[in-house]
From TrEMBL:
Regions crossing the membrane: 62-80, 140-159, 184-201
Keywords: Membrane, Transmembrane, Transmembrane helix
Natural source organism: Bathycoccus prasinos
Protein name according to UniProt: Uncharacterized protein
Lineage of the organism: Eukaryota, Viridiplantae, Chlorophyta, Mamiellophyceae, Mamiellales
Keyword Transmembrane: yes
Length: 285
């Protein structure tokens, strides 16, 4: 009897000890799981912080913001008020009779340049943006810039987070890979830009054409005034986009070499950036 009691007490004691050990193990596992969860949450928070670019701490982004408000002020307060359907008729002539002398040649070259520059920005920004920022896709802003120019593109240039590393050509979408990265596309942009320069310079020494353009810009057309200022601003902020694109493609070069941009590419409006697209290195596969 006594031996049976001893065995029963021993079994109960052993069971309690095992239960306590299991409880402790469960606590340890739970704590480890909580620690892993906390670490994952911290990593996600840090990643989110990286994506939230603090543009207010970047003097260059603040300058772009200032240019955006300046362009808005020009469009609102400075540009001449169009009388009647003058601007609508101007656009109709540009579309229906391109380069036929129906519109002032200088303005016609400038207006068509506003079709080239957004395409250049698409080639510079879309391949390196959007993968890590699903809520800030460059293609939407670039697409809108074909109609709204810097008014649409400016907010993206201010708020975006630069993506320099980890961009592979094999990961790009069909349009990005086959059109925006295409040298044929770059050649067409360069050829058309060169034609626009030829068209403008073949008329720039005609005093009557220059006088007509100045009158159009300062007295007759809101479209002409805002379009001119828009092209100037888009050209002024081109350097950073070109520089980032070159760094994205120059992993084999030194940091100083990959950040050196030929001044011709951003100092020569429209044609310079098109030449950059024609000569830039390919993305890694």
């Amino acid at each position: 009897m006594e031996e049976g009691k001893r065995n029963g007490v021993f079994a109960m004691t052993t069971t309690k000890i095992m239960t306590m050990m299991m409880d402790k193990r469960l606590v340890v596992v739970t704590r480890a799981h909580n620690n892993n969860t906390n670490n994952n949450n911290k990593e996600e928070e840090e990643e989110q912080q990286k994506l939230l670019y603090k543009f207010w701490e970047d003097s260059e982004r603040l300058a772009i913001l200032g240019l955006w408000f300046s362009l808005l002020a020009v469009a609102t307060f400075v540009a001449p008020k169009t009388v009647g359907s003058f601007d609508a008729d101007l656009i109709a002539q540009l579309v229906s009779s391109p380069f036929q002398g129906q519109v002032n040649p200088l303005f016609e070259a400038l207006f068509n340049s506003l079709g080239v520059v957004p395409m250049v920005y698409a080639c510079l920004l879309v391949p390196g943006g959007g993968e890590k920022q699903p809520k800030l896709q460059p293609k939407f802003f670039v697409g809108a810039s074909f109609a709204l120019g810097f008014f649409a593109l400016g907010p993206y240039l201010i708020a975006r987070t630069p993506v320099i590393n980890g961009v592979k050509k094999s990961n790009l979408g069909f349009i990005t890979k086959n059109i925006l990265e295409s040298k044929i596309n770059a050649l067409l942009l360069t050829a058309f830009s060169g034609f626009l320069y030829f068209w403008a310079f073949s008329h720039v020494f005609d005093a009557a054409v220059v006088s007509e353009f100045v009158t159009l810009l300062t007295k007759q057309s809101t479209l002409a005034c805002v379009s001119t200022c828009d092209l100037i601003v888009l050209s002024l902020v081109m350097k950073t986009a070109i520089q980032e694109d070159l760094q994205r493609r120059s992993s084999s070069l030194s940091s100083s070499a990959s950040s050196d941009v030929n001044p011709l590419f951003y100092l020569l409006p429209v044609l310079g950036p098109s030449l950059y697209l024609l000569t830039r290195p390919e993305l890694e596969e």
